[in-house]
Structure formats: structure tokens, C-alpha cells
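FIELD: query
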Amino acid sequence: MSKPTLLIVEDDDLQYEIYEDTLADYSLVRVKSGSEALKKIPTCAPQALILDHVLDKGELGLDFLPEFKELLPHVPIIVVSGALEVRQQMAALQGPRRAHYCLPKPVDVRELKRTIATALKECGDTEIVRQFEALERSRRLDAQELLSRSTDRLSRQNRILELVGKSKERPNISALAREFNVARRTIIRDLQELIRRGQLKPEVYPEWEEEREND
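FIELD: result
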């Protein structure tokens, strides 16, 4: 069974050595800035992200939270920093573009290991299931319709993955739209989500990078 992958966004070499010694049970991928992390995510598909605040080239980790959450909507983000005031820690843990956990430096390695284990157990797919269950309990009139749409989307994306993954040619957006009886923009959104999750390589649909830059 493969080790869970942790993406470490940390520019301090000594701090990263602590992670290497402490987190030997995981597969670690390191970058030194938020910009590097954004480039790495499509080919890395981490199960958790550990984020420092003060990074290489003067970048600030919390500034990248919205983009990380866009690319990794259900992946737990653990902020580990000694440069945050209490109000900044609270802000990092609030709102739709939030981190899941915030730990101070110098980090307690036992607490870090416990936090990562909890994050991998409680977040990700488990979090999605809890959201569906909560939606059902809410007795919203449109709950069944929303669940059906989500199931249909996942089923369609799995089928697209089979078709595109086996082909050496660029996907025909119009043909896929006709096959699944959906709009072209729906197929494009499916391809983008598959790329963000690391299930398809970016070169399958390179236009997605241009569209992100124009958003």
C-alpha cells in the first residue's frame, strides 16, 4: 500500500529536516514557495498540504489559501508557522477558503503527527460523505436532486477518464458533450477538475492554464 503524499510548502531547510525525520511514514514532496506549490499540485495530488506562512521570495503562505482550496477543495491544509498573530490564525481557520488546522512553531512533533493522522482520517473523502449526510438530514426539497447531480458528475468524470486516458489524441470536447448529452462547458469543467485532482495530465487540456490566468 503506497504512503500518503504530503506536499510541504516550507523554505527553511532545518524545518524541513524536522519534517523528514518526523514524517517518515509519509511520502514528502517539498516546494519553497506558494507559486511553486501551484505548479506542483496538478502532478502531485497530495493527501494533505503543510503550509508555512513566510516563504521564499517574500511570499506569504496565507495569501495562497484561496488558490489551494480551489485546486484541492477537500484536501486538509495544515498551517505551521511562528509568524502569525492570534487574529491571523483565526482568519486562516475561518471562511470558505480556510485551512483545517493551524500549529505554531517551533512545532511539537507529536502534535504534528497526531494532527496529520486526524486530518487524513476525517477530511478528504470522509468530509465529502459527511456533507452528503448532512444534506440529507437537512430535508431540503432539492437535496435528492443535488445528490443526483453530484453522482452523475462523478460517474461522467470516471467515464471521461477512461476514454481520454486511453487515447493519445487531444479530447474532442464537442464529441464528448454529445455523448453525455451535456454542454461543452460542462465537459471542460470536468476535464479541469480531473486535472486539478491529478487524475489527468495538464497537457491533455492545456487551455485550462490560460483560462485560470484570465479568470
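FIELD: remark
Residues 143-166 form the longest helix (24 residues).
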